[in-house]
Write a structure and sequence with these properties.
single chain; 137 residues; Rossmann fold; four-stranded parallel β-sheet; 6 helices
Length: 137
């Protein structure tokens, strides 16, 4: 089964009609069911997107988002040993400028042998062993 890990960018793009990637995100979410058997959302990404949408859209939109993510994706929680691995990733790559949320996406993709859907590759380009998915536009 092919799996896809969501970064925050496509989710924010989907929800924000003002986002420059809104159309790309809509198109991508339409294509996912035909390509992937499972869509994974690391819990830190859910928190990041929820906060963003609540602040810049509305609390109602963030609650809608929460429901959609819960029903349409598998939320990946992190155990203590998972956080230790994510922490090691960050601490052992001091030249990398990514966030803990980004590290959770990398960790999840590696653990589940999944592709990543992101829009901002700057945070992930440091790692050559990652596989990315881009929707056909």
């Amino acid at each position: 089964m092919q799996r896809l890990v969501l970064d925050s960018d496509p989710l924010i793009g989907l929800l924000s009609k003002k986002d420059q990637y809104h159309q790309e995100a809509k198109q991508g979410f339409r294509q996912i069911p035909a390509t992937f058997g499972e869509v994974l959302t690391p819990l830190p990404i859910l928190f990041e997107v929820y906060k963003f949408v609540s602040r810049y859209q509305s609390p109602d939109s963030s609650r809608t988002l929460l429901g959609v993510i819960q029903t349409e994706t598998v939320i990946i929680s992190l155990a203590n040993e998972d956080f230790a691995a994510i922490s090691d990733l960050v601490l052992n790559t001091p030249k990398w400028q990514g966030s803990l949320e980004d590290a959770s996406v990398i960790f999840t993709a590696q653990q589940y042998q999944a592709q990543i859907w992101t829009i901002d590759y700057q945070d992930f380009g440091f790692f050559s062993n990652l596989e990315f998915w881009n929707p056909s536009i």
